[in-house]
User: Which sequence fits this backbone?
């Protein structure tokens, strides 16, 4: 793994959270994007080498809506950048981690992504991401 690419935070209202994080970080989000397949709308803030991703559910059955229902707002996932997502998925599967998707899928911010089930990572949802070149 190369670095922590971003930290995902689940929020009830993206516009309100954007305003909070803009005041907190002293910067506006550089991108807002919907990922229809995941049922989320996201906003990204850049802070030096890493980013903060705010996630708002776009329908009540989306994974982020279920997370908000169970746990409320807060840290949702840590995303690690990898050089080759296929190789990394194979390595982690062999190490016994539970992958939530069997093949890389298209995520926000021009990335191929794969999630690891939190039950195999001490309760933290992990995202692997690789820039689409
Ligand atoms: Zn993410």
Assistant:
């Amino acid at each position: 793994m190369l670095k922590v690419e971003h930290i995902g935070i689940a929020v009830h209202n993206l516009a309100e959270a954007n305003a909070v994080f803009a005041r907190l970080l002293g910067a506006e989000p550089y991108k807002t994007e919907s990922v229809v397949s995941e049922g989320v709308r996201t906003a990204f803030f850049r802070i030096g080498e890493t980013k903060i991703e705010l996630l708002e559910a776009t329908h009540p059955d989306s994974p982020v809506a279920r997370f908000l229902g169970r746990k409320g707002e807060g840290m949702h996932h840590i995303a690690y950048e990898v050089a080759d997502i296929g190789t990394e998925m194979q390595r982690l599967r062999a190490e016994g981690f539970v992958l939530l998707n069997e093949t890389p899928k298209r995520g926000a911010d021009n990335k191929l992504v794969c999630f690891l089930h939190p039950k195999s990572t001490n309760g933290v949802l992990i995202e692997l991401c690789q820039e689409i070149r």
